[in-house]
Design a protein that fits this description.
This protein is about 25% helix and about 25% strand. It is an alpha+beta fold. The protein has a single domain (about 5-220), classed as Nucleoside Triphosphate Pyrophosphohydrolase. The strands form two sheets. Strands 1, 2, 3, 4, 5, 6 and 7 form a seven-stranded mixed beta sheet that branches. The protein has a three-stranded antiparallel beta sheet with strand order 8-10-9.
Length: about 230
């Protein structure tokens, strides 16, 4: 272990909702969306060849948030409208070569944004609940981020970060079900979400279905994504 001054870096956990492509291909039907995140393959030691969270060093003249956004863009070509500092991880032995303290951010991206992620030999999407052994302590970091996200779903309106500008209440409910990994009663969900006033009904309807098109809603911009309020999680 090198006992020089610690190195400071940023890492980012990026969550998006994606269908399981393998299940879709096998069944011929679209599978329910689940949480996925992009990882990058390390091309140098330590842990060369192992998958890891996107990240890198912090520039001398940039803020922590700017460094997280830059590293996110450089490694995955992703940007996020929701980027929040998660935690600082600085266990002495988390890196075998030198002391590294990582300021970890988490980002939530919509499906259309996730499609723009650069994927190739060294960047790949993984199911968040079924990860391989990652470099450093990144499995622990993802576990903490998942716990934080699921806990936050129960008292904030963070689910909207996964959606486009217009969405149906069914699409919103599917976000909750995917993140919390449990079904929610549709009628009860509708009553509770409408009672929070966090969504506003529009005059638009979703086109393309066989039945009467469902109404589209928009996010109530007077609420912040982290604002508290009663939410339908039971």
């Amino acid at each position: 272990m090198n006992h020089d001054a610690p190195t400071l870096a940023v890492s980012t956990v990026i969550f998006a909702l994606r269908a399981n492509e393998a299940q879709t291909k096998d069944s011929g039907e679209t599978s329910a969306a689940t949480l996925w995140l992009p990882l990058v393959r390390r091309i140098r030691e330590p842990f060369e060849g192992r998958w890891a969270l996107p990240g890198g060093p912090i520039g001398a003249s940039e803020s922590l948030g700017d460094a997280a956004a830059r590293n996110l863009l450089e490694t995955t070509s992703l940007t996020s409208r929701y980027l929040e500092q998660l935690y600082a991880f600085g266990t002495v032995d988390r890196s075998p070569s030198q002391r590294v303290v990582s300021i970890v951010y988490w980002a939530l991206v919509r499906p259309d944004e996730a499609e723009r992620a650069t994927e190739g030999e060294n960047v790949r999407w993984f199911a968040a609940d079924d990860l391989p052994e990652l470099a450093f302590d990144h499995n622990t970091i993802v576990e903490y981020a998942l716990w934080r996200l699921r806990n936050k779903m129960e008292y904030s309106r963070i689910a909207h970060a996964f959606l486009g500008e217009r969405f149906t209440l069914t699409q919103l409910r599917e976000v909750y079900e995917a993140v919390l990994r449990k079904p929610l009663d549709p009628a009860n969900f509708r009553r509770q979400i409408e009672s929070t006033n966090s969504v506003v009904a529009t005059d638009e309807r979703l086109a393309g279905g066989r039945h009467r098109p469902p109404r589209l809603y928009r996010y109530n911009e007077s609420f912040g994504l982290a604002d508290n309020g009663p939410l339908p999680v039971t």
